[in-house]
Amino acid sequence: MTILVQGALLKLFQQMNGDPKPAGGDLYSSQGFYLKLSDSSHATYVSLTKEDNDLISSDKIQLGQFIYIDHLEPASPVPIAWVSDRPFPPNIRYKGDQQ
Fold first, then answer.
1. Which domain holds residue 71?
2. Half-sphere exposure of 30 (CA within 13 A, CB side)
3. Which positions fall inside the DUF936 domain (predicted)?
4. Which one-letter DSSP state was computed for residue 64?
5. How many distinct structural domains can be found in the chain?
């Protein structure tokens, strides 16, 4: 069973030692993808590394799917998420109580 842990996203930001708020006015660019990451209490937009952009292009990451994030890297306008080599299978969804 997958459990959303409150504060998991905040811990990633603390490890990044950066400002969790997006800098700049435009969140969308002509290249790459932006993902909305969230835990049970926080949410933010991140971009993927150039190597990980293929995960979206090839439908390996789908809407609502859980993924493992190794770490966040400070960047502008949004942090860069390093996706783990072990993504959740697309058919695994959140089960249980968020509390």
1. 8-23+32-83
2. 0
3. 23-89
4. T
5. 1
